[in-house]
Amino acid sequence: MTCLSSADQASNKGVALIIVLAFVVLLSGLVIAYLIRAGTDRQLAQSSFQDTKSDLLARSALDIVVANFKQEIADGAVVTATNIQPQRWGTPLADGTPFPNLIRRSAQGDPTGHTSSLSSGPASFASPKRGEITSTRWNSHYLLPRASSSGNDSTPVSNFAAPDWVLLTPQGPNLTPVPSSVIGRYAYAVYDEGGTLDVNVAGFPYYTSSSPSPTPVPTPGLPLSDIGRKGSVAFADLRAIPTTAGSALLSAGGINAIVGWRNYATVHPYSTFPNFTFDLPTFVGGTGTRFVNYFGGNPQIGTSQDFRTVSTTVYLNRTDQAFITRTELIKLQREAGFGAGAMQYLGTFSRERNAPTWKAGTAAITQRFYIGNLNLIKPNPPTARNADIQKYFGLKWVNGTAGTVSPPTPAVPGHWQYIGASGNAMRNRIPAFTSNPEFFQLLNHAMNGTNGDDFGHILTTLSVGAALIDQYDDDTAADPLTGTTTTMIEYSDGWAVGLENMDPARASLSPSPTPSPFPPPTGMSPAPPPAIPTYAMLNRPFRNVGEFGYAFRAASGSTPTPSPNPKTLDFYTATSPDAPILDLFTYNSAPIRSGIVNLNTQDVAVITAILTGAFQTEQNIGPSPSPSPVASPAAKTAATNIVNATTTQPALSRAEITRLCGVVTNTPFTASEETKETIARALAEVTQTRTWGLLIDVITQTGRYPPGTTDLTQQFVVEGEKRYWLHIAIDRFTGEVIDQQLEAVYE
Amino acid sequence: MLVAISVLALLVLLVTQLINNAASVTILGNKRMDADSHVRPLFERMALDFAQIVKRSDVSYYVKTAGTPMTGNDLVGFYSAAEGYYPTTPSPISIVAYRVNSNSSSSVAYNCLERMGKGLDWNGASATSIPVVFLPLTIHSTWPSVASSSAYDDTDPTKRTYEIIGPQVFRFEYYYLEKTTGSLVAYPTAWASLSTVAIKDAAAIVVAIAVIDPKSKVLLSNSQIATLVGSLPDYASGLGPGKLLAQWQSALDSITNMPRPAISGIRLYERYFYISDQ
Hints:
The complex is a heterodimer. Chain A is of the alpha+beta class. Chain A has 16 helices and 24 strands. Chain A has helices at residues 6-75, 135-138, 224-228, 252-262, 264-267, 287-296, 326-336, 386-393, 439-448, 458-472, 581-584, 604-611, 632-648, 657-663, 673-676, 678-683, and strands at 102-105, 115-119, 164-169, 172-173, 184-192, 197-198, 206-207, 219-220, 314-315, 318-319, 346-347, 352-353, 369-370, 395-398, 415-418, 488-491, 494-497, 585-586, 592-593, 597-598, 687-688, 691-704, 717-731, 737-744. In chain A, strand 23 (717-731) and strand 24 form a beta hairpin. In chain A, helix 9 packs across helix 10 (458-472) and helix 12 (604-611) crosses helix 13. Chain A starts with 5 loop residues before the first helix and ends with a strand. Residues 556-561 of chain A have low confidence and may be disordered. In chain B, the strands form 2 sheets. A 4-stranded antiparallel beta sheet of chain B has the order 1-2-3-4. Chain B is elongated, with a radius of gyration of 22 Å. The interface between A and B is large, with 49 and 42 residues.
């Protein structure tokens, strides 16, 4: 056996030590690598977790904000002018720049009682800290007035105060929580998107002459008569939309970029996005025709389009488009290069339940009456149409009987009998109803405020209805026996007649004297009432309910002879008994639709765009109408008065448009009843008071206060953030959410 | 001396065992971390895509319905506001599609999860680029690759907008959380075909995937992976939360004709992507 020397032993120990140390280093390396990887992995997992957490928090915050609106509706079950609009808070003081769209923001002391005094805005605008939300970010949707007049900077005017934080604990919002219990926070602002113009519908194309003499002036790419008769927000003139606080307006080029992109398959634009061009407005079958056919219906008697979906027309393997999100609109604005200031007046989401809000008696009307049904009413209709005519009008056609010489018996013209929606016997009253009224029941309900059996007004109601039918139909709609074009309605106690200025069955001295009695041999009974030269006849389908104002309004007695200045339905005085008609009839049969503007909007430019281009009178239409359609400056003055009036006293229904007509005192709206009612014709079909169209902008942050923090004003450690724009339409009268669209915002 | 050598041998044996076991644990852990770290960004990507899915009744979706039941790996295609590749005049909308490539001649993408992120141009921006199309034009008739597990959107490889987003994902299945009933379903009752899809019927899309890490994958041939795909059953309506993965795990446990280390390296994941507006 060999004994190791002490030197050898020391050497062995050294080797063992080195080996052990090597192992230790190796193992340490492995452990460190493992820990680093695990740590990275944990960070990633944490990030993912915080992202999900902030998303859930954002959705919860939205639930809370929406619940506040629903509660507000529930608390105000009786709708009045003071609660028809959502309560506003956190808005600027009256002497500052107004924010027409801002309904509320989370602000200390607001009625929710949840909002802290901690502002979401940075202490220093120049150097915001992590987690602080600059006002530029808060206005990235451009719904607030901008400070800058150029570029795309979204920084709002200086009197905008960033929303305050609502602090969240596991138990929910807490005004003064213990810092260690805070798990996140949210802040929000709510805007009246329903008070803006929905660019998925609003705006029409422009034609720009290629000849530069003296300068190419864009002109509407549609016949002026289509624009002037309104009936759809598509005929709003977007050139009235300002792009700066000064006088710069949205350019025709910018509008063409929107319309050409949006309605590409419908209007067949030339050139490419965003520099589209269009046909001359006089080109039959071109851009204008296709546009009007889509938005006004083809034929233009009404439309069932709700405009919530795009047209199914296909052109060059492309379709029309819709702004799917507001972000898309913002990006299009950048591409098209039009002024960012216009974005304050443009929205991408609007909904309205097409039901009236005016109410009387026990009526429960869930749908406005579709004006297009009037197209059914033609003399001597085909049998197949009878059921619908009775259902919608309570009428039955009766053929006329010829007159005889001996004994002398006048001819009885072919006419309608009023039998109501059911049964076959003539009525001596307007029958009671609670739901689904026919035309005359609804007319009577509107003018007389009753839905019960009404014996007292049947003559007036049937006469007004007959006059409406005569305005609606043309001169070819005549009784085959006598040739009369005047609508005559028999009821069990007498006759009600309408009014036609051009009735070939009327005995007349001018222009061609006709024998009396007329028609031979013994005349007719009843006979058409005398013509009135000043009575404006449309002889075409109504394009909006405001045009009902052209119809002669019988006062009392049978077949009253109109005076030289006939009294027509009154849509221009605040106390008009005819006003509810504006709320009960519609050009659009869709039960829920897009593109309808809040009548109580505080955006003057929105009302201005709708009024601009409206025809003041019917009798001077054509390529160069005189008087000209309403010009933008006059429309703006009128719109300012209207907005001031609705701000002071919001409208409860479209019936109050007559009140708003009364506050417009500038030319050209004051010349006559017809020009005064321009407001009603332009606004009645495209506005509503029923739905709150809101854009809720919410930013949530998950995180915590550092351990030991006792002061909530200290820096909150942000671990995750989420922002959503919730577009939501809530029925003010029922609290029902009609539709909503959640838009995730990535910045 | 003998004793010392014996002790040393014993120690070496013990250390070897220790290292082996440690290595096994580490490798297993690494495999799991590999799979986890592989899946996390994939699910994050999906979350972004689904969060921005275009929810409208007038656009089409290529999704699982009664008329398109999709046996084995599923296909999904939809419009999303997520950014996509190669538009000329980029609009904010893209087409997003997911599939597991089934083309065995594709050496790279075969049995891998692919994502199509095709950026779309603005409407009317060019004569050749097709923008978002609304109904009656459908997503799969306009871009047929969305409905294919092997075809690409362009013959020029440099213009293709497909990318391999899950090289370790070989099984892709999804089903829905139905909004009206709150039930998990293979597809909502009303979805008889692609033309009756109303995306708002779904509160969430539940995506289940099977992942095999690279070290395990090399132990299997492509045909074995294809067999594995068929072994993991499709989701059937009525299966409750977590049941699909349980079925998959059970199916994996019963496999005896493939290398066990490879099978044990397969990880299963599932995530709910909420697409509801509220």
